[in-house]
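Q: Structure tokens for this one, please.
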Amino acid sequence: MVGTRLDMACRVCGGRDVELFLDLTDQPHCNRLIPPNLAGQREPHFPLRAGFCHQCTLVQIDYTIPKESMFSDYPYVSGTTKTLVAHFKETSARLVARYGFGPSDLVVDIGSNDGTWLKQYEPFGLRRCGVEPASNVVELAHAAGVPTLNRFFNEETADVILAQDGPASLITAAGVFFHLEELHSVVRGITKLLKKDGVFVVQAIYLGGMINNVAFDQIYHEHLCYYTLCSLQELFSRHGLEIFDVDVVSVHGGSLEAHVGFPGAHPISDAVTRMQADEEARGYGRFETYLRFAENVWHLRDDLLALLERLHAEGKTVHAYGAPAKGATLLNAFGIGPRLVQYAAEKNPLKYGKLIPGARIPIVEEGSVPVPDAYLVLAWNFIDEFLARERAYLENGGAFIVPVPELRMITAADLPAGA
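A: Here is the predicted structure, written as tokens:
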């Protein structure tokens, strides 16, 4: 029940005053896609509940699926999305220019996936080391020539890298820092591996952006923590590190990019104090803010279901555009299945022929089935890329249903003029 205390210790401060504000029901692991031979069996479901720590303001889920179950084999590949590749290219060039990294410097990427980010350092000659637990995507990284350790990053892995490559000038973690079951061991490993004047750059989906966009679908079992600057500072200060610069970058609907180092190693930017003041003004440290967020989620559910039911009654077909992890949260929380959304069209071959867990919507290769009257865009954070790619579909009468940040239906009339 909303407003009750969750039976857990806060993942950052260890306090036990974590209050429930959003219960998305029991759900299966969003990335454990269902192969056809198991379609007749019900997959395991686990509580998906978000709570607020009244002591350190961290937002977190209370149930932890063991990391070995979620990440040892993984269907997500960074390199399939042009937007993400371009983002990593820009970020790499920016970091190299700002900190003057060169061939003698080591960059370590935590949760490096198929090596997409590390590839972008190749023109600058940096020594590179990826750390990735999913053996299937490590094979892709090795095939691309990116040195990658097939293991979870933690304090022990930091020791391995120190012995193998020496200390790191730059450590990065993009889209992974909220995944960490061994959170404090990971940060201890960072402090051990980082040079005294080195930089740890973390990009994590920004809780402020989630609130503003009603992006509740970013909540799933892989994402254990949801950070503001305040809660992230609380974590790093406990390990003798400080955030000296911060920004919000556009990727994934708004991600916090924090630059972290040892105290005094880098001047603290005015951006840190500005964001602290902004978070205070927006109420990110108050429980009432999250209760309003939950209310907005349920309003979105009612509006989206009404739209899908109307299209169904009119005999219109609707497919999902993509089958991202966040899509499983939305579909399962709102009770959407194949009656309302017949297929999910995907570019990632690792997902073809499988079913979205819980919702049981079949995942098909893009172009392998007739186009629908409308697509429900589950990967809404890449909508600009999709609109450019599917202009002809829209001009031929198709439509995109975009649920976040607000429910809207995009048709050809909404496209900008020109190619």
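A few notes: The chain has 13 helices and 17 strands. Residues 287-313 form the longest helix (27 residues).
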